[in-house]
């Protein structure tokens, strides 16, 4: 019988490369943000009227993933509240991620609950929730800054009603004042807004540009010193993490993930972090990203991808659109699913190509017209398992397609 007494003591005693791994997570907000002083000063300049009890302008913050938008906004919000306490000015900052709090009702309910107003997360008319929030907000003199991260997500799902209400709420308040900070990866999301909302919401725009490799190296160095033991990391690791992330449009989040996962891989092997661990981490993170994308694909896209994987088991050369469509038709019959037209399947192939899951190159066949030559750009075995986890495709596990699209069991 295995003796498990003290099992965690044994694990804790193992040599760890980390001092504080949490500081390498994107959710951690550091005290200093390298290479973002201009943007931070711009936002602070816009928000400083709150410390005088006045209404700051609304702000829209744009930038690609991993350019420091969210961490900068949270950092400024924390400093604003701290300074407000020093000056005895009631400044509140409320952060909401619209990918999670993704409807007008949920946003208003969360805002009301922030001020200890009991509002159910479902069930009330939206107008009633708005009224409850407005009343509890206005029960004392205060300046409230509402940060809506990934603001484009709620617009895409629920429309712009929430922005209509929040951008005009000051007209209905007597004691409190509200400003809005919207954060988005999409520079064009305001194009779909009502012009009146766009005008009142986007009073100030601030752009966060991508980081370059040198800037990413500074960020990683700052985060690694308190989080990784000095003797546990090789000199080439941080520059390599920075170089890889710079290729991914200057993504600091990607750089931090690379460094953290490299450390986890090294720790598992009982080694210091080396170049090989960074390269392994790059592959692992990319695969994890693809797996998450594949899980959320529509069923028809999953079926097309599974068809490509099964055909590639019997064919070394690239597949043509026609071959994929014939195989797809066979799989539709097997699963009793609706068969889409070849044109629609070609569109799905293009979408898979855009996601980086496959490579689809248009080639000319002379007088026979044009077609796409299709190859996989991912690990087929890993993705196949994810696809077959979908109950609608599970009966295809042992069903194969030959290169000539003749099926066999």
UniProtKB/TrEMBL annotation:
Coiled-coil spans in chain: none
GO BP terms, alphabetized: DNA replication
InterPro entries per record: AAA+_ATPase, AAA_22, Cdc6_C, Cdc6_lid, ORC1/CDC6, Orc1/Cdc6_arc, P-loop_NTPase, WH-like_DNA-bd_sf
Keywords carried by this UniProt record: ATP-binding, DNA replication, Nucleotide-binding
SUPFAM superfamilies to which the protein is assigned, alphabetical: P-loop containing nucleoside triphosphate hydrolases, Winged helix' DNA-binding domain
Record protein name field: ORC1-type DNA replication protein
Ligand binding (ATP): 67-71, 211, 223
GO molecular function: ATP binding; ATP hydrolysis activity
Role according to the record: Involved in regulation of DNA replication.
Annotated family: Belongs to the CDC6/cdc18 family.
Domain named Cdc6 C-terminal: residues: 305-387
Ranges where the AAA+ ATPase domain occurs: 55-212
Pfam families with a match to the protein in the record: AAA_22, Cdc6_lid, WHD_Cdc6
